[in-house]
Amino acid sequence: MPVYQHAAPERVFPPLLALLDKLLEASLPSRVVSIQLEHQDQIWKGSLHDARLREGADFYLSVRSSMPNHELQTRFPQLCKAGSFEDVSDVVNVALSGIEIKPLTHVPAAIPLRLENQYFSLDLSSDVARTMLEMGSCTFYTPRSLGEGET
Is the per-residue pLDDT at 112 higher than 90? Predict the structure, then answer.
């Protein structure tokens, strides 16, 4: 840990905060499992390695886009396609629906809030959702019309 210097606090605070996050995570088990999504062109993919994800978990997306927030809240659920990789490929090619995506008006307290992001939930009651959980991977197709985004 660098020594604190009042003229350059940016040297000490990022490593200090990272250490605090790590220590708190170790001492306070989180009910939130973050899924890292890999981005390639219009497809985002993630692995559902943690067993807790297949045992009655709720799935939420945190999305940031160059599109205005109010427009993203409406258009993202209509245009984004979610499911297993195979299902999303079929859904996009045949213009079908994937897992239903719903905008959230209230973000659950356990989810880290980023003010610039919009939040959505996945409806896991469909066959497409069950297939995604069984396959152990999730895929999201985001058309270019949604703007430059981060999921």
Answer: no
